[in-house]
Amino acid sequence: MFTHTYARELAADAGRARTALLAALPGLDGCTIVDEGEPIVVRRAGGERGRRFALTARLTPDAGVLRMAIHGGGESHGEFAAEIAAALPEGILADQGLPAALAAMARPELVLGGFELRHLANELIPGERVLLMASCHVRRNLSLAVLTDRRLLVKDRKLLRSGTREVVLAKITSLTTLTRISGDMVAVTAPNVTLRMKGMHPGRGKTFADLLRTRIDAAAAPAAEAGAPAGAGEVRALAALRERGLLTDAEFTVAKHRALGLGGTG
Q1: Are 198 and 163 contained in the same domain?
Q2: 53, 101, 171, 220: which sits with the fewest CB atoms below 10 Å from its CB?
């Protein structure tokens, strides 16, 4: 038996989120709410696989985050967390930039990255924003490269499982690109990590690398320069992205507010 904890950023207040959970959970297959208190406790029967595959989820919406602690056997904890999130009505969870990044992917990329996309939201940090995604190959495995405002994530498909490698942007020491007939390649190096993301959709590698380089520069800038408010360096990097058409005015405004600690919605 294992317990896995997931955290999803809330767009609604805790009260609305709690009401939405209590309304949605009974509609999930095999689920029964056993405690409507704090946390909300819901159990899912193991079905044909038996009692040892039953799952118990403890759900706590609080301080802008929905925390889901899921206990049980088997390997379907993440799937259950994704189902709970999907059952909530629009406006309860923040999208964290996923729909926009998904819409920007070419159709062939969607075919390659579909498997990895299913549980990506489970791995995002509350407050983190997805900027760009690209399908690729890492060590001959179909993968999905995900650039956020904080990290580079590579979801690497291995047989029937999908693992994730992550690199904090501030720790990346080198970035190289290469264009081949088989597709673009982007390679990054950080302490104890080298990732070669091959076979990106033509032109996608350059776009991905340009944005990644800008984010690395922003992450390497001092957190607060003399005479400037905290986040000033990141705001300048965001402005450069907007000028190059990589951020809309609305996305720039939201990201700027977050960088300066002024709040904002995502």
Answers
A1: yes
A2: 220
